[in-house]
Design brief:
The protein is α/β, with parallel strands linked by helices. The chain contains 16 helices and 21 strands. It folds into three domains: about 5-235, P-loop containing nucleotide triphosphate hydrolases (Rossmann fold); about 245-330 and about 415-510, 3-Layer(aba) Sandwich (Rossmann fold); about 340-415, no CATH class. The chain is about 30% helix and about 25% strand. A hairpin with a 2-residue loop joins β19 (about 470-475) and β20. The longest helix is centred in the middle third of the chain and has 16 residues, at about 170-185. The termini are far apart. Bound molecules: adenosine-5'-triphosphate and magnesium ion. Magnesium ion binds next to α1.
């Protein structure tokens, strides 16, 4: 006989107006198990977990903990039952310290005495790297996430729900998180892990439940399945996951970056003497560990970052010192998908049309805004990127699923008909099928003759999709290599600071 499940959700139904987010979902997790929830953007993963953590009330169905039915009408009920959730968008108070955030999650700051030692011991037990006296505003994303985990453990969580915890982590931070998850498993806790990264799901989980359009499709043992089978189950049909490089001769050099140096706020260099060229009809990728100057490079190209030295020539004209608006008007479009998707570029309370207007008004002359182009564009983007939304008007984008919010951000950039497209982390948080749609879209831009600068984390994708790869390490270019012949190992070494010219057998296309 099967042991009684730690948590069991049976026949769960949840609707938002006309949207059926959970349609008779069944889901069970056992003690000592890491269980993935897998599904396309909008499949209902976050909604299901929000019901387990008492944020939403189910419209139907039952929840059992160790065989006993429970009713959660608020998060505190779920916390009392040992459930802790770390959300897709963090819920920390920026102006407070780590310790204050942890204590506040359980009781008032009034009861602070004697708690420090308990919190410290807990952090040590689970090997969580948190400086308890640091303010949240000074923390990296990885630190904030550890803090969120510490907060729920302090509340007594034995069932940890992690909603896309690795979407914004560096590979190193992900390794650390996995160690924490394994530790929890060894202590007999249960971990529910939501991620779109198939290799992570395959590595860390014991079981996988696939959701599709609000329904449970299947629960599988990780050891007995493959990424291909999982994707087919998620999408509901066989999906082709090969990434194709569009082979075509590169066009003329459209952008020449010469000796670009950008300083950080504290005065140390974020980019140092960076030089490269972008050609029309070509995808030039940028590889590098997080924080190697990718953000500053994008911002400098878009006119959002002060340049200390160097030139950015576009069709012979220097863009340095020109305003973002002028640069955009020349046909250079930049989209940077931030770690916090709602933090930049979109206003959560506005509908899709008004979010498009935010960008379009810059391109319109005169005082009165013409809404028609935005309505048309919104409808077009919705169709092209298959954005799941009940409506492009009068439906705040913050109610959409994480991935769908992001598709709007991206669709807005891709649709401005640029000559140069700079896109950083465009597939962050997108499901695997949609990722491939985005790769196709980049190829379409390339075919049109657009010079594409593509910044991303997944080296397999960079190697398969791009023509050349520029590697950044500590703000310096360690080499530009041919994506057709370079290997992951070579790029890995260059990301750590080795020059391409010093590596054996690297197909260096340009010395830097
Ligand atoms: N508060 C809400 N109001 C209205 N609709 C909502 C709300 N929360 C979720 N939905 C809708 O429910 C559906 C499921 O969304 P959910 O956020 O659970 O998806 P998800 O599987 O977590 O997707 P992603 O991978 O993109 O995060 C979506 O169509 C979404 O728009
Ligand atoms: Mg979600």
């Amino acid at each position: 006989m099967d042991q009684v499940a730690y948590i069991s959700m049976k026949n769960i139904v949840k609707t938002f107006g006309k949207v059926v987010a959970s349609n008779h979902v069944n889901f069970s997790v056992h003690k000592g198990e890491i269980h993935a929830l897998l599904g396309e953007n909008g499949a209902g993963k976050s909604t299901l977990m929000n019901m387990l953590s008492g944020i939403y009330l189910p419209d139907g169905g039952s929840i059992f903990i160790e065989g006993k039915e429970v009713h959660f009408s608020a998060p505190k009920d779920s916390i009392a039952a040992g459930i802790g959730m770390v959300h897709q968008h963090f819920k920390l108070i920026d102006v407070m310290t780590a310790e204050e955030n942890v204590i506040l999650g359980k009781k008032g700051l009034f009861f602070r005495k004697g708690e420090s030692r308990k919190i410290d011991a807990l952090a040590k037990q689970f090997e969580l790297d948190v400086d308890l006296h640091k303010k949240v505003s000074d923390m990296s994303v990885g630190e904030k996430q550890n803090l969120e985990i510490l907060k729920v453990l302090y509340q007594g969580a034995r069932i940890l729900i992690l909603d896309e915890p690795t979407a914004v982590l560096t590979p190193q931070e992900t390794r650390k998180l996995f160690a924490i998850m394994r530790k929890m498993k060894a202590e007999g806790c249960a971990v529910i892990f939501i991620s779109h990264k198939m290799n992570e799901v395959m590595e860390i989980t014991d079981k996988i439940t696939v959701l599709r359009k609000g329904e449970t499709i299947q629960t599988l043992n990780t050891a007995e399945t493959t990424p291909k089978q999982l994707t087919d189950l998620m999408v509901g049909r066989a999906v082709d996951l090969t990434i194709e490089r569009l082979e075509q001769p590169a066009g003329p050099e459209l952008v020449q970056v010469q000796g670009l140096t950008v300083l950080k706020r504290e005065g140390t260099p974020a980019l140092q003497n960076v030089s490269f060229a972008m050609r029309g009809g070509e995808i030039l990728s940028v590889a590098g560990i997080a924080g190697s100057g990718q953000k500053e490079l994008c911002e400098a190209l878009a006119g959002l970052q002060k340049v200390k030295e160097g030139k950015i020539l576009f069709q012979g004209e220097d863009l340095v010192g020109q305003s973002p608006k002028e640069i955009r008007r020349r046909g250079i479009s930049m989209s940077f998908v931030p770690e916090d998707r709602l933090g930049m570029g979109l206003v959560g309370g506005m509908d899709m049309v008004h979010n498009l207007l935010l960008k379009q008004y810059q391109d319109q002359k005169g005082f009165f805004l013409n809404k028609k182009p935005a309505v048309e564009k919104a409808a077009e983007i919705k169709e092209k990127l298959e954005i799941a939304t009940p409506g492009i008007s009068k439906y705040p984008v913050k109610n959409l699923s994480g991935g769908n919010i992001q598709k709007i951000l991206l669709g807005r950039e891709l649709d401005s008909d640029p000559e140069v497209l700079i896109t950083a982390y465009p597939v962050r948080g997108l499901d695997i099928n949609t990722c491939h749609k985005i790769y196709d879209l980049l190829n379409e831009e390339k075919k049109k003759g657009v010079a594409v600068l593509f910044i991303a984390e997944d080296l397999d994708v960079l190697l398969a999709l791009s023509d050349r790869i520029l590697v950044l390490a500590n703000g310096e270019v360690t080499g530009i290599v041919d994506a057709r012949t370079a290997t992951k190992e070579q790029i890995g070494l260059m990301m750590m600071g080795q020059k391409a010219t010093e590596l054996e057998g690297t197909a260096v296309v340009e010395n830097c």
